[in-house]
């Protein structure tokens, strides 16, 4: 007759290893998700500079398509301009997925243009656009961000672009 404890030993060992290895990873993932939710609530939506200092590395790299800005000060300046143009802006996190030090977010941005934007005077027009961002976190701070926003739809809603029929060749 087989000893039931011996049959359970490999399973118990596997569970112990998982608790030692998986639990810290799950905690890190949960911590990273909390950082990104705070990023959207306190920094992106409210422009709280203290939150930026707490959540974002001083040498952060922010990618917008082919353009990359480097450093927290440059990022703060860029966001300050965006907040001046759209002071009522509101980012809503629609999906959030994290794994291995990275957090992916699908978001929606709603706002009205009340300040100059892209050399265009305030229009009062409402925008409602979607985008996605990938965040790389390191040592509890955001070290790199890739932003992909539906810029054509943003421009269309602001009256700066039209979607017409394709050119005939």
Word description of this protein:
It is a single chain. The chain has 169 residues and is of the alpha+beta class. It is 41% helix and 33% strand. It is built from four helices and six strands. It has helices spanning 4-44, 49-55, 72-85, 151-157; strands at 56-64, 67-70, 90-99, 102-112, 126-138, 141-149. It has a six-stranded mixed β-sheet with strand order 2-1-6-5-4-3. Helix 1 (4-44) packs antiparallel against helix 2 (49-55). It is elongated and about 80 Å long. It starts with a helix and ends in a 12-residue tail after the last helix. The model is unreliable at 21-26 (pLDDT under 50).
User: Count of helices?
Assistant: 4
> What is the alpha-carbon Rg in Å?
22 Å
| Main sheet specs | 6 strands, mixed
Q: Name the average pLDDT.
A: 87
Per DSSP E runs of 2 or more residues, the count of β-strands stands at 6
Low-confidence stretches: 21-26
What is the helical fraction, as a range of percent? 40-55%
Order of helices and strands: HHEEHEEEEH
Widest β-sheet, arrangement of strands = 2-1-6-5-4-3
Calculate the terminal CA-CA distance, rounded to whole Å: 83 Å
Query: Class by helix and strand content?
Result: alpha+beta
Task: Output the keywords.
single chain; 169 residues; alpha+beta; 6-stranded mixed sheet
In a nutshell, what does this entry contain?
With 169 residues, this protein is of the alpha+beta class. The protein is built from four helices and six strands, in the order ααββαββββα.
List the helices and strands and how they pair.
Blueprint: H1 4-44, H2 49-55, E1 56-64, E2 67-70, H3 72-85, E3 90-99, E4 102-112, E5 126-138, E6 141-149, H4 151-157
């Amino acid at each position: 007759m087989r000893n039931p404890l011996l049959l359970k030993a490999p399973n118990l060992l596997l569970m112990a290893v998982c608790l030692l290895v998986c639990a810290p990873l799950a905690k890190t993932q949960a911590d990273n998700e909390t950082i990104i939710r705070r990023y959207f609530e306190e920094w992106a939506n409210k422009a709280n500079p203290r939150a930026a200092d707490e959540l974002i590395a001083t040498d952060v790299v922010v990618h917008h398509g082919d353009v990359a800005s480097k450093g927290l000060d440059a990022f703060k300046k860029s966001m300050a301009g965006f907040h001046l143009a759209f002071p009522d802006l509101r980012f809503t996190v629609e999906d959030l997925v994290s794994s291995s030090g990275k957090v992916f977010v699908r978001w929606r941005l709603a706002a009205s243009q009340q300040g100059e934007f892209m050399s265009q005077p305030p229009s009062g027009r409402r925008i409602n656009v979607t985008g996605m961002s990938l965040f790389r976190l390191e040592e509890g701070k955001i070290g790199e961000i890739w932003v992909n926003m539906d810029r054509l739809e943003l421009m269309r809603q602001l009256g700066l672009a039209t979607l017409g029929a394709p050119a005939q060749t």
